[in-house]
User: What shape does this take?
Amino acid sequence: MAVASALRPDVDTAIADNAVSIRHFTRRFGESTVLRNLNLDIAPGEFVALLGHSGSGKSTLLRALAGLDPVDEGQIQRPKNVSVVFQEHRLLPWKSVRDNVTLGLDGKEWDQQAGTILQEVGLGHRTEAWPLTLSGGEAQRAALARALIREPQLLMLDEPFAALDALTRLRMQKLVLDLWKKHNCAVLLVTHDVDEALALADRALVLERGEIRTEVEIPMARPRRHADPAFEALRERLLGALGVSV
Assistant: This one.
């Protein structure tokens, strides 16, 4: 029996009023099914957090959305402009911060745009610095700038703060919120951190064995406080969905 296949990166966000529309997406590696008949919509400008244990299929879904892996079963519609920030900053050590941000983009206008976006992420004073001289937080700021200079309609963040210390992580979370509000793009954040998901997202999804088993709306106003009873209630619900007793 023929298997339907479609990955359409040129689909505009106006289609079905969604930035992302996934229907019946299945991803297999040999005899192993990593994602199973998955359906997901992300609205333009919506911030969605994706949680799940290692091996649940989070990064596999992100790679398919980014166009890095083929779509052999099901359909994925996404915007034309998509950017990804990974856990590793992936900066080229032989290029300056500015040149890393404008990688693949030609013209003086991009240099000017890089200066603007580096100011936004707090690196206006490090434009000519070499990546090896940056702290972990600065390197991730540069990676964010490289993603945002392309004005993506969908920004995907694959555990971008996992290697940072606690204080730097909090600063980066605030920065991401500020940039999200400014650039008004849809965001899909892959994370293991329930508190991070609750602090940032409009909606949290729990992926288990290749399926979205839990979906939690987060209607709280930002900034969000851990001491808020509503925060704690949502935290217990997500931890429970992840199999963690509170």
